[in-house]
Fold this protein.
Amino acid sequence: MSITHPGRLDCFHNPLADSQLAYGAARQNILSVARAKNALSTISSWPNYQATALQQLDTMAEAANIAKVYYKDESTRFGLKSFKALGGAYAVTRFLQQHLAQVNGVEPTMEELLSGQFKAQLKDVVVSCATDGNHGRSVAWGAQMFGCQCIIYIHRDVSQGRQAAMEAYAAQVIRITGNYDDSVKQAASDAKQYGRVIISDTSYPGYTEIPANVALGYTVMLAEIVQQLQADVPTHVFVQAGVGGLAAAVCGYFWDLWGQQRPRFVIVEPEQANCLQESAKAGELRVVEGDLDTLMAGLACGEVSQIAWQILAQGADDFITLSEDAIAPSMISLQQHSPSIEAGESAVAGLAAALVAAGNSQWRSALGLDEQSRVLVLGTEGATDPELYQSLVFGISS
Ligand SMILES: Cc1ncc(COP(=O)(O)O)c(C=O)c1O
């Protein structure tokens, strides 16, 4: 018997999913294990690089009556507290290397870029993006590391704490009145007007190279996981999605690496921001309108990234939504775990969905979970909004 975890799911099995399908050249052009090697060698040469921990949550697995739960804990990533540190900063790196190659005729190595010798040439280059916090923090950090300027757009619901975290890396932060998708549009139109370069984690027709580099940055986390798993290939991966960039990186990397042995791939979204699920149901890209209201700030997106969809449309097995009441109990359980794990609201969506599913016979069978299941989840952030974390986990409000 498994223990019921609070929360509700809406499960949609992808009729286009095909476990026999080869990954193929078109998807490899977006993201591949071969192309991920450069991201690993680049990012592992940055100051203070350390692989984050892969925790095994045995008590939770036992309560859920499944064999294993692996939790990749990104709360310590480069001191930025989320996996997003890998993506935006890597895309800034690649852009600056290519920019300097154009200007000087030769692409600088990572070591040369880090040495600061190009600061004079980079001081007027401006990178920009829209963000709900974590991606912008990464872009700001990368810009500061290499000496270019950074302007970040945030929407009305981004907390003051998240804004301050980006300003701490010397970024100029502009708050707009609309939602996340409005901030994406504003950043793009201002960049066009003022000659800035958009480093976005989401792609659209005609803008794919930089978001593909962002996703390649994320694969560093996946290369670490593969090493840490020591050949114990999971049966399931539950991964949370905003625009789908992370989910596509995970799905694409494991699909390319493990082929038909790859895990069942389950995408998790908030009920009010389920653009991937709606797209899967429609069989084509769909936009979710409205204020995308959810505790899971990093997942509050209404439009799917185009290149992510090229991988997920046939690569994802299931698209599910998770209700808000599942979040705080999972954050508390992780805080009380030994060792204690700091997990933010967006971090626990995959874990919470797996536990909710395992505790309910209908969803358990819909998602193929049983006592043999080895589930991998990605704890994508720590307390990136410290006030909200204190209030959800300890009931302390300031
Ligand atoms: C903590 C966290 N987890 C997951 C995601 C989802 O990533 P994506 O938007 O690439 O789907 C985000 C996005 O910002 C995030 O901040």
Summary: The pocket of pyridoxal-5'-phosphate is lined by residues 82, 84, 132, 134-135, 201, 240-247, 298-299, 301, 346-347, 380-381 (CB under 6 Å). The chain has two domains: 9-83+216-394, 84-209.
